[in-house]
Write a structure and sequence with these properties.
The chain has 116 residues and is of the alpha+beta class. It has one domain (2-113). Helix content is 55%, strand content 19%. The protein is built from 4 helices and 4 strands. It has helices at residues 2-22, 27-44, 52-69, 107-113, and strands at residues 70-74, 79-84, 89-95, 98-101. The longest helix is centred in the first third of the chain and has 21 residues, at 2-22.
Length: 116
């Protein structure tokens, strides 16, 4: 019984590792996700995020912020993204094309709450 379970579990485990390796996000994916979150927040505030000029400004701001203050630690199956702001350092786990904050507060959420 144990041997049968092990025969099933090991291939599934290695398949999951392979999928994690394939979907390990890079810096561009992190920037795109941040831009997408800002665009969604702008739409919820009634601003038209499909406006090319507005989206250009959002992308420029995200890229400028991420340019110097964003770093990535690659662990092959996942990555840790670090955003260094003057007040604090924020870390995000990137795995399976998803980003999860590794602390209680999220600076992007804090910033989006300040939009009138």
């Amino acid at each position: 019984m144990l041997r049968t379970a092990l025969k099933l579990t090991l291939p599934i485990f290695f398949l999951m590792l392979f999928i994690a390796w394939l979907t390990n996000p890079d810096l561009d994916a992190f920037r795109n996700k941040a831009t997408e979150r800002v665009a969604t927040a702008l739409e919820s505030q009634g601003l038209e995020a499909q406006n090319p000029a507005l989206m250009g400004m959002v992308e420029l701001a995200v890229n400028q912020l991420a340019g110097e203050r964003l770093s990535r630690s690659n662990y092959f199956f996942c990555s840790v993204f670090t955003v260094k702001l003057p007040s604090r350092e924020y870390r995000y786990l990137g795995a399976f094309s998803t980003f999860v904050p590794l602390q209680d507060s999220d600076p992007l959420n804090d910033l989006l709450k300040q939009i009138p």
